[in-house]
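**Archive record**
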Amino acid sequence: MCFAAIPAILSVAGTAVSAAGAIAQGRQQAALAEAQAQALEQQAKAEQASSSFEAMKEARQSSLAQSAARAAVGASGLGFQGSPTAVLSANAAQSQLDLEAIRWGSTIRQNNLGTQAGISRMQGKAAKQADREERARQRAIVRQGMLEGDDRYLAPRDRGPVRAYVRDRVD
């Protein structure tokens, strides 16, 4: 009699361990996804700071290049009409385009990182939902087993042939 209950006990224990593992896995996936999303958001902020620095550096280099070009034109004895003015103007326009390209590239990278953070959060929510569904499935199995009177799913106080007899008579 005692040996016959061992497989039933092991089966219930296996189901409990499986459910606990699924629950823990879902929670871990959700926590990992949230941590990843936070890291991506932090990376987006760092990208913004980096691009601001790059834009400032580019503006400074452009200003220095334009100053050097003006000095060279002045030292050559040429006036600021015609070709030298056109070159300085073209250099200034190109410098402005370079600054805009830096800002645009940064905006694109920040948006991509924000999108990745959103995807990571969605994956975390999906993991939590899968965890809830697994727990609900496990509860349904246990409930069905209890309704059927299977000793594996009953509380220890309700197990045994005497309790089964009482359950059958009362129900």
